[in-house]
Every structure is written in C-alpha cells, then in structure tokens.
Amino acid sequence: MNTSRRHTFIWALSALVVLAIAWALYAHWPAMAHKDRPLGMGGRAEPVAAVAVVPQDVPVYIDALGTVTPTQSVTVITQVDGILASVDFKEGQQVRKGQVIARIDDRALKAQLAQAKGVLAHDQAVLSNAQRDLARYRELIKAGSISQQTLDTQISTVAQQLGTVAADQGSVQNLEVQLSYCTITSPVDGIVGLRQVDPGNYVTTASTSAIAVITQMKPATVVFAVPEDYLGAINQARAAGAVSVLAYDRNKQNLLGSGQLLALDNQVDTSTGTIKVKAQFNDAEHVLFPNQFVNARLKAQTLDQVPVVPTRAIQHGSQGDFVFVVAGSKASLRNVKSGPSVGDVTAILDASVKPGEQVITEGADKLDNGSAIKVVAQ
Q1: Beta carbons of 284 and 275 less than 8 angstroms apart
Q2: Are strands 212-216 and 72-76 parallel, antiparallel or unpaired?
C-alpha cells in the first residue's frame, strides 16, 4: 500500500515539473523573439503620415449656452373697457411704431366727451359773465355806488368759476385720452405674435389676457452666463476694444450671427459662480428668435503666431499630452502643452515643437519613442 502511494506521488510530481517547464518556455519565448527584432514595433519601419508645424494666429474663445432675448417685448392690453371692434394685424406681421393694430368701440366715450364739452362751454359762459360783472363793480366802487363787500363777493365768484372751468377742461382732456385708447397702436417696431383675443369680445382693463405681444428683434440680444474665473480675461478684452461674440446653433455647426459684447451684469451669482453677459447682434433678426437656445462664443484674446498642429496629432497619456515628431527615420516623442483649438488645429503653448518640424498625424498608435518610421504621406 505504501509502495502504491509512493508511485502515485512520483507521477504527480513529475507532471507538475513538466507543466512548470512548459510554462517557463511559453513565457520566455516572446521576449526572446522580441529581442531579435530591429527598432520599430513589428520589426520594420512603420508607414506614417506627417504634417508640418506652422505658426498661426489662434483666437481664444469662451463658450457658453445662451438665450436669445428681444430688445423689447411689449404685451399689448386694453386701457379702456369696451367691445373689441377690430384687430388690424396679421399674426407674425412686421409692424411699425404707431401702426394701428386694434380698435375698441368708442361710441360711449364719444358721447361722454360731447357732454363734457357742453358742460365746459356752459361754465365758460358763466365765467365770462362773472368777469364782466367784476369789471363793472371795480368801476362802481370808485364812485361809491357799491360796497366793498359786494366787490369782494364778486371776486370770489370769478375765482370759483375759474376753478369750475379748469375742472371741466380736465374732464374733457381725460375723456379725450380715454377715447385715444380706443385706437390701439404699436409702441415699438417689431413682430406681432399670435392673436389672443378675437373681435367681438368685451375687454376690460382688469383682464389678464393680452390682445397681442410685440417683440422688437432689431437689434437682437443674447444673454449667457460664464464662470467668474473669466472676468479678468473679459475685462482685458473690453479694455482693448470691441469684443466679438459669435452665435451658433444648438449643434455648433451653423453660424447664426456675429455681434459684440454689450454689457456685463453688476454682480456674480453666488449660487452658480457665474456672471451674466449680454451681447448684441445687429443683423440677425431673421435667424435669432426670442427664447431660442444658442451656443455663444466670446472672443477673449488672440494668440499671435503660435505653433499649431492638427488636433488628431495630439495623443493623451498618463504624463499629459504628447506628439510624435519626425526625426530622420525615427519617431521622437515630445510632451506638449496643448492650448485652444480652432477648426481642426490646436495651438501649442510651449516650445516643445517648432515651426517647420513635422508631426505624425496617422499611424501614431503603433509607435513608441525611437520607433523606425517611413513617411508615406504629407
């Protein structure tokens, strides 16, 4: 029994030794094969594409999501009670300041105005008679025909009648103003929205329903918020001159308009750490609509003649960004400090690459520092 167990143990030990030798040969074989390879991954010169580094002016933009706001937005409501007689605009129509957009039945107010004018004419006649009596009393007092009390009473009568006439004139003016409210005109140049009240409805000053909403979109404005960290850069740009702002669509593909920075808010929003910025667009009234979301790009500065490389040439590693530079027949790895991008190129902010050098744009994923390369496309 002991002999059988001993033979089994020997066989098991032998099998383990064989497996260990086989594993060691398997693990050691790639290293031996790699040791015999020449420089360059794969044992041959890797074909790559390269592009020359060039100097270029690179604008530095601050991007933010903005909202289009009209220059003015006016909610037109009635200032008198009455029947809406007519609506004199088409929905979405461009209207001018002073243009009639609606009328309210004014017959009742016209009747009240006529009555007020009649009262005014009556009181003016009474005043005129009292003034003539006062003139006669002033002559009679000199002859001693009337007493001083009679003269004083007539002076007071004229003053009272003057007050009555002034009140009548105020009533007439008030009714004339009320009558003018029956013809509703546009207070601004702009685009009128959808009709909200139809003719024939009784409208009152207490009603919350507007007859129309008119928005002035020339010039259009865009409001967006930027982090407070950019305040210094924005103020420096403003001190240097006009600051340009671009408005793109939601996908950042189509340029909707070019404008200028108009104003900064007077305080930072402490809950978000941002400050509101307003930009003005003079010639974008037909592409920018109120409450539309746009991508705003504020030009903070311009980097003058800095080296730029294609963005696809920049690789990202644990030690930061790097590029491969063509050094003869080999690839040289250079750590770079990437800056802002414009189009399909990115600015390099340090002296790691120089204009005229070639950076590899295709095939870099197969390279290492010192890999043999062959430039097949430029």
Answers
A1: no
A2: antiparallel
Query: pLDDT digits over 196-251, tens only?
Result: 899 999 999 888 788 989 998 888 899 999 999 889 888 988 888 888 899 998 88
Rg value, the chain, Cα:
44
The kind and range of the H/E element at 264 are strand 255-264
Q: Where are the domains of the chain?
A: 1-36, 46-58+305-377, 62-71+215-302, 77-103+189-212, 106-181
Which fold would CATH assign to domain 46-58+305-377?
2.40.420
Mark out the alpha helices in 228-366 (DSSP H runs): 231-240
- Segment holding 302, helix H or strand E: strand 293-310
Residue 338 contacts residue 373 (beta carbons within 8 Å): no
* Domain spanning 62-71+215-302, CATH architecture: Beta Barrel (2.40)
- Within this chain, domains 46-58+305-377 and 62-71+215-302 share the same CATH topology: no
pLDDT band at 375 (very low <50, low <70, confident <90, very high): confident
| Angle subtended by helix axes 107-143 and 148-180, to nearest 10 | 160
Q: Which residues contact 372 (CB under 8 A, 6 or more apart)?
A: 38, 39, 40, 44, 45, 46, 329, 330
Map residue 333 onto helix, strand or coil.
strand
Q: How far apart are the first and last CA of the chain?
A: 79
Report which of 275, 303, 287, 292 is spatially closest to residue 56, judged by C-alpha positions: 303
Cβ 110 vs Cβ 179: under 8 Å: yes
- Tell me, yes or no, if the pTM score tops 0.70: no
269-288 burial: b if 16+ Cβ within 10 Å, else e = eeeeebbbbbbbbeebbebb
**For residues 84 and 201, what is the distance between their CA atoms, to the nearest angstrom?**
6
The pLDDT tens digits of the residues spanning 120-166 come to 999 999 999 999 999 999 989 888 888 899 999 999 999 999 999 99
What CATH number was assigned to the domain covering residues 106-181?
A: 1.10.287
Model confidence band, residue 38 (pLDDT cutoffs 50, 70, 90)? very low
Nearest to 315 by CA among 361, 378, 373: 361
